[in-house]
Amino acid sequence: MAVLSDHHWPDPIAGLAEMRRVARRVVVLQWDASRVHEFWLVRDHLAEAVALDRRGPSLAERAASIGASMTPVPVPWHRVDGFFHAYWRRPAAYLDEAVRRCTSVWAQVGPEAERRAVASLRAELESGAWPERNRELLELAEAELGLRLLAAG
Length: 153
Description:
The protein is of the alpha+beta class. It contains eight helices and six strands; from the N terminus they run E-H-E-H-H-H-E-E-H-H-H-H-E-E. It has a single domain, classed as 3-Layer(aba) Sandwich (Rossmann fold), CATH 3.40.50.150. The protein is 40% helix and 14% strand. The strands form two sheets. The protein has a four-stranded mixed β-sheet, with helices on one face. A two-stranded antiparallel ribbon has the order 4-5.
């Protein structure tokens, strides 16, 4: 099993193939990087994240390499374990440095981009612009943000 991690591997296809070789069943939870630009945090505050996910094979290529099915996994708004999209309906969480340290995106974009994005988000929250711009999210119990369960075997 791999959970939101195979995008960090030097050769994701080889790593997945090795998982498939040694295990009867392979399960990978990952998100579809081709949709990163749709996430409000990236769209409005952290455009640098788009470049991060243009590296390596696509999620479809990863799934195909091990013969995996691909199932969407909606993200509930009240999810407590952190990953980049976990706080999609609770934007103030991204202002917390401890929350940001739990996801690799912030380290990868660098401190300057992080400071700018946090300042921009803070200003939007203080002005009331965030809830106005993202009103449709505030009514959702879960969101389809591109998280996928790959299962093979």
